[in-house]
Q: What sequence folds into this?
């Protein structure tokens, strides 16, 4: 089983800035641990700060993988184009957030993506990605 993780704008700064909100671990370090915990799954990660590049990756992985774990960052709250890309592909997409977006500013309470995703996980730090993976694995069994 292959799962594509896609991280959007500014998530390349994980572990470097705002540890009170996003923790102090780099994503690469977290991914090594996640991959070791799920040897039967092939995890690949892509990060971009560019909306069109994220859409290209959703289209590619949406036809070439068994599922997508997507943290679209700030585009979660603004991007009709990313929503359209998710809706257009057959692979299930789980929306994830490291922080609890509902406990933050009002503008983060609404996602344009949630309605076209298989599910949403938010607020568990980087463990949100593992929980999303569990969701995809369970959904795949059914
Ligand atoms: O909680 C999340 O995962 C978010 O998707 C993160 C986005 C934010 O716009 C969403 O509302 C919620 C921001 C990503 C910024 O990532 C940083 C990581 C480390 C340091 C600075 C920014």
A:
């Amino acid at each position: 089983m292959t799962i594509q993780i896609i991280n959007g704008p500014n998530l390349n700064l994980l572990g470097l800035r705002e540890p009170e909100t996003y923790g102090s671990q780099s994503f690469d370090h977290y991914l090594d641990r996640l991959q070791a915990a799920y040897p039967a799954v092939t995890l690949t990660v892509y990060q971009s700060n560019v909306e069109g590049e994220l859409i290209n990756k959703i289209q590619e992985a949406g036809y070439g993988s068994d599922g997508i774990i997507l943290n679209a960052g700030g585009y979660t709250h603004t991007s009709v184009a990313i929503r359209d890309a998710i809706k257009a592909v057959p692979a299930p997409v789980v929306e994830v957030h490291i922080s609890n977006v509902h406990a933050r500013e009002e503008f983060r309470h609404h996602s344009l993506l949630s309605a076209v995703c298989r599910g949403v996980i938010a607020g568990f730090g980087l463990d949100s990605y593992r929980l999303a993976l569990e969701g995809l694995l369970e959904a795949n069994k059914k």
